[in-house]
Design goal:
By secondary structure, this protein is an alpha/beta fold. Helix content is about 55%, strand content about 10%. It starts with a strand and ends in a 7-residue tail after the last helix. The model has no long low-confidence stretch (mean pLDDT about 95). The structure holds adenosine-5'-triphosphate. Adenosine-5'-triphosphate (ATP) binds next to helix 1, helix 6 and helix 9.
Length: about 210
């Protein structure tokens, strides 16, 4: 089994590339999805977040008010670290359980973990390989403005909060260039999955991850 992190920058095409890997037979675990699962009402992380931030962080339906929480943690490093400390161990528990289940079923599989903030959270050493979904910054900006209808300045602000995508290139094992057409991206995904499948067969059940 090989466990591979898929990362990028906002709007660089992580979800698009993850779907393509899934189409090619890889198992995909989506960290953003797990991050939402672990904070569902009455789960341990949900309780801890209310203890820490107070009940005013809840929406009327008892789910977390994500935009209120985002506003707090984006402007205060200590709060952000506290939130990460409450959620990340639970996200890893969930993903480790999924990985274990996949390993039992299919010990030579390729597992792709879609993890947008891999480098920002210094998690890169945990994985066998790293794939970067790459587009130049100008393309990130254009695609996010088009997809989310945000102002250019707002997207600039979000881009500036991440490690620049150019910097992430040198720490990645595979770079999927997603600035061209989708067919071009898919061809690169096919080449990479073949290499990873070879690796998974060689490694059997041995992955350094998780
Ligand atoms: P986020 O950081 O918000 O999670 P992401 O990295 O997952 O984004 P996607 O949502 O996959 O990125 O892609 C961003 C936008 O660019 C989407 O609207 C998507 O449809 C579009 N897109 C992705 N790849 C391509 C491509 N090769 N050609 C044209 N448009 C693309």
């Amino acid at each position: 089994m090989v466990i591979v992190a898929l990362t990028g920058g906002i709007g660089s095409g992580k979800s698009t590339v993850a779907r393509m890997f899934q189409d090619e037979g890889a198992y995909v675990i989506d960290f953003d999805f797990l991050a939402r699962v672990v904070v569902e009402p009455d789960k341990p992380a949900w309780r801890d977040i209310i203890d820490y931030f107070g009940p005013e962080i809840l929406s009327p339906d008892r789910t977390l008010n994500r935009s209120a929480l985002a506003e707090i943690v984006f402007s205060d490093d200590e709060s952000r670290k506290a939130l990460e400390g409450l959620t990340h161990p639970r996200i890893f528990e969930e993903s480790d359980a999924l990985i274990e289940a996949i390993k039992r079923k299919d010990p030579s599989s390729v597992v792709i973990i879609d993890l947008p903030l891999l480098f920002e959270l210094s998690l890169n050493k945990k994985f066998d390989k790293i794939i970067l979904a790459y587009v130049p910054r100008a393309v990130q900006l254009k695609r996010i403005v088009e997809r989310d209808g945000l102002a250019k300045e707002e997207v600039e602000k979000r881009l500036n909060a991440q490690i620049p995508i150019e910097e992430k290139r040198s720490f990645s094992d595979y770079i999927i260039h997603n600035e061209g057409g989708l067919n071009d991206t898919r061809n690169q995904v096919r080449k990479v999955i073949h290499e990873l499948e070879d690796l998974a067969r060689k490694e059997g059940g041995d992955s350094k991850c998780c």
